[in-house]
Automatic annotation (TrEMBL):
<comment type="similarity">
    <text>Belongs to the ribose 5-phosphate isomerase family.</text>
</comment>
<dbReference type="GO" id="GO:0009052">
    <property type="term" value="P:pentose-phosphate shunt, non-oxidative branch"/>
</dbReference>
<dbReference type="GO" id="GO:0006014">
    <property type="term" value="P:D-ribose metabolic process"/>
</dbReference>
<feature type="binding site">
    <location>
        <begin position="88"/>
        <end position="91"/>
    </location>
    <ligand>
        <name>substrate</name>
    </ligand>
</feature>
<feature type="binding site">
    <location>
        <begin position="33"/>
        <end position="36"/>
    </location>
    <ligand>
        <name>substrate</name>
    </ligand>
</feature>
<feature type="binding site">
    <location>
        <position position="128"/>
    </location>
    <ligand>
        <name>substrate</name>
    </ligand>
</feature>
<dbReference type="GO" id="GO:0004751">
    <property type="term" value="F:ribose-5-phosphate isomerase activity"/>
</dbReference>
<keyword id="KW-0413">Isomerase</keyword>
<protein>
    <recommendedName>
        <fullName>Ribose-5-phosphate isomerase A</fullName>
        <ecNumber>5.3.1.6</ecNumber>
    </recommendedName>
</protein>
<dbReference type="GO" id="GO:0005829">
    <property type="term" value="C:cytosol"/>
</dbReference>
<dbReference type="InterPro" id="IPR037171">
    <property type="entry name" value="NagB/RpiA_transferase-like"/>
</dbReference>
<dbReference type="Pfam" id="PF06026">
    <property type="entry name" value="Rib_5-P_isom_A"/>
</dbReference>
<feature type="binding site">
    <location>
        <begin position="101"/>
        <end position="104"/>
    </location>
    <ligand>
        <name>substrate</name>
    </ligand>
</feature>
<comment type="function">
    <text>Catalyzes the reversible conversion of ribose-5-phosphate to ribulose 5-phosphate.</text>
</comment>
<comment type="pathway">
    <text>Carbohydrate degradation; pentose phosphate pathway; D-ribose 5-phosphate from D-ribulose 5-phosphate (non-oxidative stage): step 1/1.</text>
</comment>
<dbReference type="InterPro" id="IPR004788">
    <property type="entry name" value="Ribose5P_isomerase_type_A"/>
</dbReference>
<comment type="subunit">
    <text>Homodimer.</text>
</comment>
Amino acid sequence: MTDDLSPTDRAKFAAARRAADLVEDGMRVGLGTGSTAAWLVRCLGEAVAAGTRLTGVPTSRRTAELAREVGIEVVTLDEARWLDVTIDGADEFDGALNLIKGGGGALLHEKIVATASDRMVVIADAGKAVETLGAFPLPVEVIPFGWQTTRALIEEALAGLDVATREITIRTNGAAPFVTDEGNHILDLHLGRIGDPHRLSAALNALPGVVENGLFLDICDTVVVGHGDGRAELRDLDAAAPAQAGGAAGAVSRDLDD
Ligand SMILES: O=C[C@H](O)[C@H](O)[C@H](O)COP(=O)(O)O
């Protein structure tokens, strides 16, 4: 299943394969979304074919489709109630294992599922490691009602910030706003660096119209880092560097003070 992969895809596969080994017989597993999570789902499909029993709670329609295709029993979160582990990709992770997620637009279900799990394991290629979160645009999910007003509110709260509307290309009609599995839209915040992610997350989620943002703070327990040569290493929260306090506070924190 891995012939002719690019080094990045080999790294994603290596992380996914190592994380699949953490899943034990009988576990209820949250299944993430994205290209790295898709490798995990395929690895778990192989485990199921080899006799492992597991139940999967997918974080998106496309993950649900793939999980069924590879033979994983799929249930809803409310049927499972609580999960042993969620394994998901990320767009960025820092030394304290805080994350930016939502590059694929699934951040809302992903955050709900990860929060309802004993353990969250992130699988990522080494290129996703950052010192300070924010180089990857932060996705914010907003409801369709008045969403352009919500975008203006975010711009006002973070003065001068470049807020982009995520779009999809439509063959006949140009572009249209991206629509999530919950029927919402995604705004991408080009922050560069985030000084105080807890403060930013709380400020964004306090705005009417905002459903959730892609900062996953104090949720991830382990990151499995994959490398292009096929190696994968585990970074656990206990061994991770403490979050940087204040030092990286940039324009975002200042603007929130205003
Ligand atoms: O909404 C999408 C998810 O948060 C993904 O897990 C994240 O964007 C990473 O995706 P990929 O593994 O494709 O880089």
